[in-house]
Amino acid sequence: MTSRKLTKSNQNVWVTGVIAGLGEYFGWGAGRITAMRIAFIIALIVGYGTPVFVYIVASLLIPKRA
């Protein structure tokens, strides 16, 4: 069994690589990662700033890939 580690993406980065890192961790393709980015933007509009806080916390907690 291979061990996976959640890290920020180094290649598919828009802001900090958190969403692409999550997508790579779960084995999602580029289309699904783009859909997650769109869902995050919609959550920003609907969530009144809460998604920004979650994204910042995730950005601080998830390490960069070495």
Automatic annotation (TrEMBL):
Protein keywords: Cell membrane, Membrane, Transmembrane, Transmembrane helix
Main location: membrane
Keyword Hydrolase appears in the UniProt entry: no
Transmembrane residue ranges: 12-31, 37-62
Pfam families reported in the protein's UniProt record: PspC (PF04024)
Domain Phage shock protein PspC N-terminal: 4-64
Membrane topology: Single-pass membrane protein
GO cellular component: plasma membrane
Subcellular location per the Swiss-Prot or TrEMBL entry: Cell membrane
InterPro entries for this protein: Phageshock_PspC_N, PspC
Entry coiled-coil feature ranges: none
Protein name (Swiss-Prot/TrEMBL): Stress-responsive transcriptional regulator, PspC family
Species of origin: Lactococcus fujiensis JCM 16395
